[in-house]
Amino acid sequence: MSIENSFQNVKKLILPYLEDDSLADSIEMDSDFIKDLKINSVHIVDFVIDLENAYDIVVDDDTLSKLSTVREVIDILEARKPVI
Amino acid sequence: MIGNDIVAVQQGKSFRRLEQYMRRICEDSEKTLQIDLHPAMLLALTWSIKEAAFKYCRRSYDIKFYPKKFQISRIKGLELLQSKKWNRSPKIQHRGFADLPHLNIQIESEFGTLLGKTIGCENYIHSIVSQDKDCFSAVHWGIVEIGSPLYKHQSRAVRIHALRHFKNFTNQSGPEGFEFIKNENNVPVLYINGQQSPLAFSFSHHDQFVAYAWC
Questions:
Q1: In this predicted complex, what is the ipTM?
Q2: A39: distance to nearest CA of chain B, Å?
Q3: Model confidence at A29: pLDDT above 90
Q4: Contact B151/A61, CB-based, under 8 Å?
């Protein structure tokens, strides 16, 4: 799966937590969940739980504590891919 | 200085989901939370206390909210959560906690021991945290049900209600000259006619509820 595919999939997981549909078009790799997308702290945890369930992964506490941008989520997904 | 937070009790969430949440926000060592409480209420209680603690510490430190950094070491008055004594009014304005059933909280963090007061009902939990135990008798606070979960409505409503309460208390009137501006740590600061007020304000909102506190 390409980074673009991962980005699109992550975007779909973010959408339920946007208060305004118009913000969907503003989601970019460097979007900050709180500052740019106005997602509150409760919904960031919601999103991470959705991510874990969708990809059958566990986001460790240290990673979650530093998670700020969409790019960092893509990095998590990329890091789990086996190196060929 | 104070920090506050309000959390709507999400009765509709599945138990599995609530369990996943609790794993994310509590250390195993927080045994004080092993209590007979509906998981949605327990989640709201825990989150409210921890985010209020974060908001207090954020005034002095450039930190990001991570619930496990704040560990609840003591909760007194838990029986209130199962009682019918809590205020259910959609609008509350108060000063201090002396005449109101509330929980007394203690939180440990890398920034030291913090103290908290929590009130609520089956719909929401609201906490105020400080390191100064004397501030709790002087703190002004309020909760309003606004009927909209949208950020732009919450953000506007909490400012309007906080300012209204502040003006009533200080016998000031008129819309001019009052403005809240967030500082570099995202903390709201009141400016009156361009002059920064020394009062510490804290705003919070979740779903249809907004809450404020100042002292």
A1: 0.75
A2: 9
A3: yes
A4: no
